[in-house]
Amino acid sequence: MSMTFFSASSTALFSSTWTQGSTGAYAGTCIFLIILAVLFRFLAAGKHALEHRWLDRDLRRKYVTVRGMPTETERIRSDDDSKDAVLISERGVEEHVRVVRRSHRPVTAWRFSVDLPRAAYATVMAAVGYLLMLAVMTMNIGYFLSVLGGTFLGELAFGRLTQLEEHGH
Description:
By secondary structure, the protein is mainly alpha-helical. It has helices at residues 23-59, 72-78, 112-137, 141-158, and strands spanning 63-65, 97-99.
């Protein structure tokens, strides 16, 4: 195995059956690597969005029963200035609970509905990342530049979706 970059249009990729026989096939393989690298950046942006969705859902999922405090509907009915009004919640009716939103990021409880998709998503991301790594490890300069170009294009297209929010929220 060569330890220096080289440029050959007949370098096998992932297996000996994926060996290019022409310049067009080599260009097609490079385009495939560019798309694969863009897909990897897209997956990273998607994971970021999913993590935010799961965390937001977890922070909003705590319900606390409030004893001795009037519900919002009772408060509205007892107010002399209000007309006949009814409070409708997300579920369509008022419940005797209040939604408590935590403002910090705790370690969330293990949930099958979140942790199984998270693990599957991370596995797909690892597989794509390892395929890109194997392409670079061939030391073919065309493959290397294709992975870099795809990473650049993917970050250009999806990088703004993975920005850290201000103040750690």
